[in-house]
């Protein structure tokens, strides 16, 4: 009883709120296909979705744009039943509902095409489409029906495909088509596509957009998740922008521009001011020349990158994540082998296609705060004290012969906990139990206190609360003041702008431009979104 | 205490106990099905293993085997490696021990032979683990597959050596000659004459096993190498970030693992049989996997789990002896049920227990 | 009242007597790996004990070992509980028996397939070479391709003893006979793997063999099956396996483990126990070749005559069958 009453109250309040804000637009019919009201989702200390309101009209293509980590995927996972919202209301076709799992999402007409396809490679197209919706114990009947239905769908939406082709042998574009057909076969009226063009060639992407338009014209609702501005402008009717877990704006695509979206995506300064005193810039401490890096699949992710960082200087690398920054950092830190290129560190030249040894880089005075502390910077199972020596555990001050000097380690860990205000101040607590900000401080303390000449630092404030952000920024400025060279990679444009002395922008593995810290957000935002380059390509 | 975390006593005490009880209940049902009294069976099982001096001696003797192989599996497991080859490494390690004993037993007392035997067992066991380790580290051949294959190769090698090279002229049994006193570990019944170990073969290797437990504990939790092994096992990316070479850690860890398995022969070859014989490992290498899982990779847990399996082995033999309708295959079924519940179904009760403690802790928090 | 008491006393006495009888003769059998149902060697011992039980009504206890340490343990457990005699099956038990027999000098022990030289132990060994010689002759006479096969369980001395006699017999008939030898495996599973036995037999057929002798326990049933399936001939071992595939089993090299066990039990019961080594060959009928209605059609008069002649010659010493165990070597 209580439950129903309170829900009605919430509905009334929130609908009021939306009316006042008036930023939700409805295309097509009056009843929206999807309506999200005040949706919240946290993962531990990370607030991935903050009070999300979203209205998507029936029979429209709605884009959701935002940086990686802005919360788009989390939001879509809530819609598809992978996650449960901590609070908030979901309405499908005007009716409040819950989506406990993906089965329920499918039954409510929601289909999803994942970024990484959920297909069984050795199965045929038909088998994949039927998988999970066989309909009855006997496969044969289901398959015959499916064959008819598949043909009908393919004709109706102009998606011809050989039902007996083996999926693993199809090109990626067609595999994606199978995913879409799979969703439609299950009766999807709402289709969510998560970064669908990430794996497609430009012509495949164009073909996909044609299909999406057909789907829309047939009355389906399409939600397109992407961080590419061009796609939004090309294909969507309406667009919403997410940033740092918040839905910051909704627009009719026709009434907005790439520039406006870029600015909204990157965001205005919400950060505290960092005092950046004048520091005398010295000789280069890190020089990188002609660096090329391939990933595990053999795709070149860093293309002929060269730069230098001088003593007392912070060089910021801006860019939407996934444009080669991670691979660049990993190669410099000695974690992965470069294809070619060299690095001059502390006056000594190293061929990065030969040397890849993180321990050696540390010995030469380079330390590294990795962009993903869970995956790389910390061993979550280890205690704070054990994590405080990761990578430095060979040093004599931590050991007695072959044994670790646990007292010395603990003593130093305690000092650092005090100095960096790590909370709770427990050296024996496992790293996993600290909040994001405190985890980052553990890493930062370790990498700064070893007194390096060069500091590589990636995404220093990702998933970190506001208080810790300021502290971390100040520590970086201290390094600069001490005449160290800092290479900063961040997707937060504000962070880059307020900390860096010079900014280079990476797009698709290339350095596409260099700017000073006075560069406008719009200018950088466009470089980051690859607009210049893409515009050139389009011609 | 955060959500999903359990207090240590639950994780290390209550959960294993629940798993064990479940295993025994199901075993009891099996006993009922074949028409015997399960309580009678439990009585014989426990009495056979703990009820008299000789039974205790045998329980400790079997436990010694499992401590060695359990430690071997556990060390590899800390580096995220699944060493299924304990059986073969123990088998070949026995060869190293036998060579040391055969070479020295006629000339020196046992305590002079001892260090050579230990070195021989460790060296041969490690050597047998080296090739799978190298293939995993350099070629990415999965270590589970290669170590299993090496178990077969080990038995082929040993049959050949025992039938052709090591067998004394004119004897039928593929085994070496008996070691003289200089190649025999003292039996505890001869060392501690006041204690009653009956005629059981529990020998000095039991104490070697305990010492090795301490060594492994120091290695894993107190040395730089142990730190690197655990880092690599817990988070290979972080290990790469820390400049820890995956090739080196894989190979070194497997060498240690193989050496530990190789020491199992100290108990059987130099302690009990005082000769090297066909199939002496008798599956202890595989039991070691269950022991390591049940003992959560910690030497104390491994000792406890080894004692449990020693109890099952000795009590099981006694049970099959006293109640002939419970055949040795039934004993294998009971042992398998324990492994199933303690190893494979280790997480069966966990969600329920976690939910229980979560509710419990949130209630106390609200209060 | 009185009658009742007397009756009661008689009944009590009867009970006590039977009790005492049972008390005095409690035999036990310890099998090796493989266990009492291995369709082969251990099972033959089990059958022998069953025959004894069927004839005398005296029950026996037995134990199947699981790991090497249990050999000693089982022997000791039986001896300690007063079971006597204790018969151990298999050469692998020798070391354990040597220890335990010394601990219990008043208990009678017997071991099959190995020699333990102690005053309270009867060691029973067979001249497998002699029996194998005869079936080797039959194989060489029956083959059309001058190629015959041998599938052993594991490459250990006991099996080489079989193989060596087989080869000698075949070469005795026809020195051009080619003999293909394969071993099944290197672990205990080698004796219990009919599938692999069948595969090995088939591969030998493919290489031209048309008669295959097995000495591989349960694995051998696969060998005989393959021979029957492919229209070739198999030769059984240990017990008479002719009836398994009548018409496809040329003969069997019968090793009288059951007879030996039965006789040992009988000797012990009747007070005729003797310790020492019993070597059972053709002369003692401990090994023989099986000739019955199932393979009558396969054995010609000529073959029968040749084999029987050879048997006499071996017994008389005219033919000397080299025993592999003498020098761990086979002359062929």
From TrEMBL, chain A:
Write out the annotated subcellular location.
Answer: Cell membrane
Identify the stretch annotated as signal peptide in this record. Answer: none
Membrane topology, as annotated, equals: Peripheral membrane protein
ABC transporter domain boundaries: 34-269, 286-533
PROSITE patterns per UniProt: ABC_TRANSPORTER_1, ABC_TRANSPORTER_2
The keyword Iron-sulfur belongs to this UniProt entry's keyword annotation: no
- Name the record gives this protein: Galactose/methyl galactoside import ATP-binding protein MglA
Q: Which organism is it from?
A: Pseudovibrio axinellae
TrEMBL record, chain B:
Q: Which GO terms describe its cellular component?
A: plasma membrane
What's a single GO MF annotation on this record? transmembrane transporter activity
Alphabetically sorted, this entry's keywords are: Cell membrane, Membrane, Transmembrane, Transmembrane helix
* Annotated localization: Cell membrane
Q: What is its main location?
A: membrane
InterPro entries to which the protein is assigned, alphabetical:
ABC_transp_permease
The organism's place on the tree of life at top rank: Bacteria
Topology with regard to the membrane?
Multi-pass membrane protein
| CDD domains according to UniProt | TM_PBP1_transp_TpRbsC_like
Q: Which residues cross the membrane?
A: 12-35, 55-78, 90-108, 114-135, 142-162, 202-221, 249-270, 276-295, 302-324, 330-349
What Pfam families does the annotation carry?
BPD_transp_2
This chain's protein is named Ribose ABC transporter permease protein
Q: What is the lineage of its organism?
A: Bacteria, Pseudomonadati, Pseudomonadota, Alphaproteobacteria, Hyphomicrobiales
TrEMBL record, chain C:
- Signal sequence span per UniProt? 1-22
Which residue range or ranges hold the ABC transporter substrate-binding protein PnrA-like domain? 28-321
Q: Which InterPro entries match?
A: BMP_lipoprotein, Peripla_BP_I, PnrA-like
CDD domains reported for this sequence: PBP1_PrnA-like
Q: Where in the cell is it found?
A: Cell membrane
Determine if Manganese is one of this entry's keywords: no
Please give one Pfam family short name. Bmp
Q: What is its main location?
A: membrane
- Does the keyword Membrane belong to this entry? yes
Cellular compartments per GO CC: plasma membrane
What are the protein's UniProt keywords? Cell membrane, Lipoprotein, Membrane, Signal
PANTHER family referenced in this protein's UniProt entry, alphabetically: ABC TRANSPORTER GUANOSINE-BINDING PROTEIN NUPN, TRANSCRIPTIONAL ACTIVATOR PROTEIN MED
| Family the UniProt entry places it in | Belongs to the BMP lipoprotein family.
Q: What is this protein called?
A: Membrane lipoprotein TmpC
Q: Which organism is it from?
A: Pseudovibrio axinellae
Q: What gene name is listed for this protein?
A: tmpC_1
């Amino acid at each position: 009883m209580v439950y129903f009453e309170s829900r009605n109250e919430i509905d009334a309040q929130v609908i009021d709120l939306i009316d006042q804000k008036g930023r939700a637009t409805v295309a097509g019919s009056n009843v929206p296909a999807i309506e999200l009201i005040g949706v919240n989702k946290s993962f531990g200390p990370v607030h991935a979705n903050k009070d999300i309101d979203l209205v998507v009209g029936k029979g429209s293509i709605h884009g959701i744009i935002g940086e990686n980590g802005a919360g788009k995927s989390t939001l879509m996972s809530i819609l598809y039943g992978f996650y449960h919202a901590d609070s908030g209301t979901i309405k499908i076709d005007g009716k409040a509902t819950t989506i406990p799992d993906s089965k329920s999402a499918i039954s409510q007409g929601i289909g999803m095409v994942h970024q990484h396809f959920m297909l069984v490679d050795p199965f045929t197209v038909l088998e994949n489409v039927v998988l999970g919706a066989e309909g009855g114990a006997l496969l044969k009947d289901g398959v015959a029906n499916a064959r008819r239905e598949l043909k009908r769908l393919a004709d109706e939406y102009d998606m011809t495909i050989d039902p007996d082709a083996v999926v693993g042998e199809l090109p990626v574009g067609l595999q994606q088509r199978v995913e879409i057909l799979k969703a439609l076969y299950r009766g999807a009226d709402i289709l969510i596509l998560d970064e669908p063009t990430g794996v497609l060639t430009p012509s495949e992407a164009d073909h996909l957009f044609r299909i999406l338009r057909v789907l829309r014209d047939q009355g389906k609702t399409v939600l397109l998740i992407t961080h590419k501005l061009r796609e939004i402008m090309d294909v969507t009717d309406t667009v919403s922008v997410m940033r740092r877990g918040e839905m910051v704006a909704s627009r009719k695509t026709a009434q907005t521009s790439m520039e406006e979206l870029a600015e909204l995506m990157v965001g205005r300064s919400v950060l505290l001011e960092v005092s950046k005193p004048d520091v005398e810039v010295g000789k280069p401490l890190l020089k990188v020349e002609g660096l090329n890096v391939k990933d595990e699949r053999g795709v070149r992710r860093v293309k002929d990158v060269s730069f230098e960082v001088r003593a007392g200087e912070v060089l910021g690398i801006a860019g939407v994540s996934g444009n080669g920054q991670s691979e660049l950092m990993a190669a410099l830190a000695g974690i992965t082998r470069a294809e070619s290129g060299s690095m001059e560190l502390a006056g000594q030249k190293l061929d990065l296609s030969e040397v890849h040894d993180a321990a050696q880089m540390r010995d030469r005075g380079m330390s590294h705060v990795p962009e993903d502390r869970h995956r790389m910077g910390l061993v979550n199972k280890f205690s704070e004290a054990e994590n405080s020596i990761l990578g430095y555990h060979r040093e004599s001050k931590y050991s007695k012969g072959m044994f670790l000097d646990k007292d010395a380690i603990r003593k130093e860990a305690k000092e650092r906990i005090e100095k960096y205000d790590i909370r709770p101040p427990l050296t024996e607590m496992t790293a996993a139990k600290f909040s994001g900000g405190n985890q980052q401080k553990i890493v930062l303390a370790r990498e700064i206190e070893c007194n390096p000449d060069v500091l590589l630092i990636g995404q220093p404030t990702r998933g970190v609360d506001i208080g810790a952000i300021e502290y971390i920024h100040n520590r970086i400025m201290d390094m600069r003041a001490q005449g160290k060279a800092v290479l900063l990679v961040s997707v937060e444009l504000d962070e880059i702008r307020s900390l860096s002395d010079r900014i280079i922008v990476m797009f698709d593995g290339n350095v596409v431009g260099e700017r000073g810290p006075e560069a406008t957000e719009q200018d950088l935002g466009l470089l980051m979104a690859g607009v210049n380059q893409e515009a050139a390509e389009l011609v | 205490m955060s959500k999903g975390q359990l207090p240590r006593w639950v994780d290390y005490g209550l959960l294993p106990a629940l798993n064990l009880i479940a295993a025994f209940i199901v075993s009891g049902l099996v006993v009922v099905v074949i028409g015997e009294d399960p309580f009678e069976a439990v009585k014989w099982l426990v009495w056979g293993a703990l009820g008299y001096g000789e039974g205790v001696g045998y329980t400790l003797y079997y436990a010694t085997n499992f401590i060695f192989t359990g430690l071997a599996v556990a060390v590899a497991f800390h580096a995220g490696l699944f060493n299924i080859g304990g059986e073969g490494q123990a088998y070949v390690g026995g060869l190293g021990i036998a060579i040391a004993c055969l070479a020295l037993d006629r000339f020196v007392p046992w305590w002079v032979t001892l260090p050579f035997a230990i070195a021989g067992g460790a060296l041969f066991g490690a050597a047998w683990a080296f090739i799978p380790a190298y293939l995993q580290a350099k070629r990415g051949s999965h270590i589970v597959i290669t170590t299993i294959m090496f178990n077969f190769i080990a038995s082929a090698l040993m049959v050949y050596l025992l039938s052709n090279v090591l067998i004394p002229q004119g004897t039928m049994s593929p085994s070496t000659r008996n070691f003289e006193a200089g190649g025999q570990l003292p039996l505890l019944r001869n060392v501690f004459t006041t204690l009653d170990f009956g005629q059981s073969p529990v020998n000095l290797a039991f104490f070697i096993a305990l010492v090795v437990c301490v060594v492994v504990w120091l290695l894993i939790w107190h040395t730089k190498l142990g730190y690197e092994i655990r880092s690599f096992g817990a988070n290979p990316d972080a290990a790469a970030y820390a400049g820890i070479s995956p090739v080196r850690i894989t190979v070194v860890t497997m060498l240690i693992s193989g050496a530990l398995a190789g020491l199992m022969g100290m108990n059987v070859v130099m302690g009990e049989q005082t000769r090297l014989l066909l199939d002496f490992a008798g599956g202890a290498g595989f039991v070691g996997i269950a022991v390591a899982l049940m003992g959560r990779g910690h030497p104390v847990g491994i000792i406890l789990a080894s004692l449990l399996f020693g109890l099952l082995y000795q009590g099981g033999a006694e049970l099959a002896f006293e109640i002939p309708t419970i055949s040795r295959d039934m004993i294998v079924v009971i042992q398998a049920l324990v492994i199933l519940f303690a190893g494979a179904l280790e997480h069966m009760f966990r969600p329920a227990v976690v939910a229980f403690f979560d509710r419990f802790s949130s209630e106390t928090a609200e209060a | 009242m009185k009658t009742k008491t007397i009756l009661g006393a008689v009944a009590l006495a009867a009970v006590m007597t039977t009790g005492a009888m049972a008390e005095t003769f409690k035999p036990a059998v310890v099998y090796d790996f493989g266990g009492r149902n291995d369709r082969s060697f251990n099972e033959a011992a089990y059958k022998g004990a069953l025959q004894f039980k069927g004839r005398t009504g005296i029950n026996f206890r037995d134990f199947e070992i699981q790991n090497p340490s249990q050999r000693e343990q089982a022997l000791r457990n039986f001896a300690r509980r007063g079971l006597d005699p204790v018969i151990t099956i298999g050469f692998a038990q020798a070391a354990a028996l040597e220890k335990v027999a010394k601990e219990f000098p008043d208990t009678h022990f017997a071991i099959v397939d190995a020699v333990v030289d102690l005053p309270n132990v009867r060691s029973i060994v067979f001249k497998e070479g002699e029996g194998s010689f005869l079936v080797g002759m039959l194989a060489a006479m029956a083959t059309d391709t001058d190629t015959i096969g041998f599938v052993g369980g594991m490459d250990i001395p006991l099996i080489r003893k079989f193989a060596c006699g087989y080869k000698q017999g075949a070469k005795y008939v026809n020195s051009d006979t080619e003999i293909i030898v394969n071993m099944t495996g290197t672990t205990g599973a080698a004796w219990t793997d009919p599938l692999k036995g069948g595969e090995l037999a088939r591969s030998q057929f493919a290489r031209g063999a048309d008669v295959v002798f097995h000495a591989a326990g349960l694995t051998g049933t696969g060998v005989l099956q393959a021979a029957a399936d492919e229209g070739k001939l198999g030769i059984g071992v240990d017990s008479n396996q002719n009836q398994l595939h009548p018409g496809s089993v040329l003969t069997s090299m019968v090793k009288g483990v059951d007879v030996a066990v039965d006789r040992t039990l009988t000797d012990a019961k009747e007070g005729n126990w003797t310790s020492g080594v019993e070597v059972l060959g053709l002369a003692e009928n401990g090994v023989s070749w099986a000739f019955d209605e199932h393979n009558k059609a396969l054995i010609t008069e000529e073959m029968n005559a040749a084999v029987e002649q050879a048997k006499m010659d071996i017994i008389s010493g005219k033919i000397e069958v080299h025993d592999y165990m003498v020098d761990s070597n086979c002359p062929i």
